[in-house]
# Entry
Amino acid sequence: MYKLKIKHHFDAAHFLPCYNGKCQNLHGHRWEIVVEIWTKELDKQGFVVDFGSVKEVINQYDHACLNDKTEYKDIQPTAENISRLIYQKIKKLTPKIKKLKVTVFEAPNNSITYYENK
# Structure
């Protein structure tokens, strides 16, 4: 079994209009993303998945207001929703994934992990 692990970040703003508190105002974070992929098989090039492809998924959010992104039109851009949406995009990169986890750090000590328990 292979386990790929990528740690990457992006800087982006967001606000939570359905939240009653300071996070309802526009503010920014340096979002740290940790992606873990397990597989038994490699692709034709000998990769679990290209590191650059995973970073491209994450870089889509860099220096953006997350509320302006189409995928957040009907949901709040919380760390929970960000982790799920990045998970869904990375899962499409290769059908050989046995297990995938995406952890989003909104702050150095605050994180959420999304994965499917199969």
Q: What stands out?
A: The beta strands are 2-14, 27-39, 64-65, 99-107, 110-115. Residues 2-115 form a domain with the Tetrahydropterin Synthase; Chain A fold (CATH 3.30.479.10). The radius of gyration is 15 Å.
